[in-house]
């Protein structure tokens, strides 16, 4: 899987203001900014992203995904 494919899958299932991805095709690192994360704890945010990947997490298309998730306000503070 390419970074572009993974970005398309995530952004199709979750409205994202920003996505950064790096990885080797199976092990990925992501920074995801979405207003859908408002009021959610980190585990809930990760579950929301995993839900967009569905079976891909179980079929080894995406073996591992490490992520940092932010709301737009949290992301603005990072800069």
Describe the structure.
Belongs to the BolA/IbaG family. This is Acid stress protein IbaG. It holds the Pfam family BolA. InterPro entries: BolA, BolA-like_sf, BolA/IbaG_stress_morph_reg. The protein is α+β, with helices and mostly antiparallel strands and 79 residues long. The protein has one domain (3-78): GMP Synthetase, Chain A, domain 3 (2-Layer Sandwich). The chain has 3 helices and 3 strands; from the N terminus they run αββαβα. The chain has helices spanning 3-13, 42-53, 72-78, and strands spanning 18-23, 27-33, 64-70. A 3-stranded mixed β-sheet has the order 1-2-3. The radius of gyration is 12 Å and the shape is globular. The mean pLDDT is 92.
State the gist of this model.
With about 80 residues, the protein is an alpha+beta fold. The chain is built from three helices and three strands; from the N terminus they run αββαβα. It has one domain: BolA-like (GMP Synthetase, Chain A, domain 3).
Question: Notable features of this structure?
Answer:
single chain, 79 residues, alpha+beta, GMP Synthetase, Chain A, domain 3, 3-stranded mixed sheet, BolA, Acid stress protein IbaG, BolA-like_sf, BolA/IbaG_stress_morph_reg
